[in-house]
Amino acid sequence: MALQAALLPSALSVPKKGHLAAAVKDTAFLTVPQKKLQVASLSVRAQAVATAPVATPGASTSTKDSKKTLRQGVVVITGASSGLGLAAAKALAETGKWHVVMACRDFLKAAKAAKGAGMAEGSYTIMHLDLASLDSVRQFVDNFRRAGMPLDSLVCNAAIYRPTARSPTFTADGYEMSVGVNHLGHFLLARLLLDDLQKSDYPSRRLIILGSITGNTNTLAGNIPPKAGLGDLRGLAGGLRGQNGSAMIDGSESFDGAKAYKDSKICNMLTMQELHRRYHEETGITFASLYPGCIATTGLFREHIPLFRLLFPPFQKFITKGFVSEAESGKRLAQVVSDPSLTKSGVYWSWNKDSASFENQLSQEASDPEKARKLWEISEKLVGLA
Ligand code: NDP
Ligand code: PMR
């Protein structure tokens, strides 16, 4: 029971990070070192794009043996400065088949992380994106388009988890931070970049949004309190403002940071399915979500109490056996981006003990089409698309 007490969200408080993310909201390239990196990496990419032939969509012709080969794909990964995003960026870049656009809120952190992970110069581009600001999302899309790259795959990976927060913090647009960053920022990004994915001549274009087991109440992990639940979405419809309504999607009066995260993951999984229903047939884009395993060592748990951070990895490794390393989780996400056998759309992928992928079942709420439609319509209003 001592273990359970340590692992359950604690009432102990930690310093709040508050509006930090909103404070760094700005355009892409802020400082000299950032500019240098960006320019260097873009110019390499520009050459790669320039060498691709125009006449054969989705293929380039090797000068040596005139055998048709697939051109290098371009994948945008949000939150690629740590954890799963970084591991997937590395895994994809290392294949040589992908150029990775690391869409990150902290440019220097991302640059250090890419270097530290041993990613080859020229295999990636870092662009500023702060999902806690809708202006920043729009700015990112402009910057990306100006860079002239095609978009072949988009991975909505970034997230924050605030299990010990006693009160909500808010995005630049005034929405509760966990749902604002994890869902609303990605919702706008995905909607804007759909056009770009549609224009791509790449044979398999994919839009991937991270889900999680803890947002699915059809699992043991999803039944650990506080349980995810969107209710009738009245809090979201009210704008998640806190002071003049609720900061929680279901309209609860009290704020619960752990539940807000789990709720945001339901939103992620519902959004993927609604995208599939609305756009798959028309565009051929593959929409997918996944639970990559419990990556208990990542920065996601940075705001949790130290005892949790100490016990969580061994607990997941030896007791639940749900633990997965950052490197392994990166390979799993990379598979969903590029594996030719994972082209099915509308799927929530998971992996078994032997690391083989399978189509997993979502909970009733996380697969409710009526809720997905309602979520879509409210989210459109909140991000200024309707
Ligand atoms: P990390 O904390 O390591 O990575 C999260 C990333 O999101 C970081 O790069 C972080 O940037 C970025 N980020 C946070 N806020 C913003 C913002 N406002 N704008 C842009 N980027 C932002 O966590 P994980 O790697 O564990 O999580 C990645 C994904 O995997 C999440 O969607 C999570 O829900 C999902 N997941 C994780 C599981 C796990 O066990 N860890 C299990 C199931 C799903 P910065 O580096 O600047 O902080
Ligand atoms: Mg959970 C049965 C297996 C299992 C799995 C796969 C997870 C994954 N967890 C499991 C079980 C349990 N957890 C049990 C029995 C407990 C009670 C001791 C427990 C507790 C627990 C806590 C307190 N677990 C947690 C927390 C968190 O703060 C994490 C969380 O909810 O983050 C939102 C978490 C997680 N457990 C997982 C996974 C993958 C997480 C975190 C990441 C996520 O959902 O994105």
TrEMBL record:
Q: Please give the pathway this protein is involved in.
A: Porphyrin-containing compound metabolism; chlorophyll biosynthesis
Q: What is its main location?
A: plastid
Kindly list the organism's lineage.
Answer: Eukaryota, Viridiplantae, Streptophyta, Embryophyta, Tracheophyta
Q: What class of enzyme is it?
A: oxidoreductase
Protein name according to UniProt: NADPH-protochlorophyllide oxidoreductase
UniProt keyword list: Chlorophyll biosynthesis, Chloroplast, NADP, Oxidoreductase, Photosynthesis, Plastid, Transit peptide
Q: List where in the cell it is found.
A: Plastid, Chloroplast
Q: What's a single GO BP term from this record?
A: chlorophyll biosynthetic process
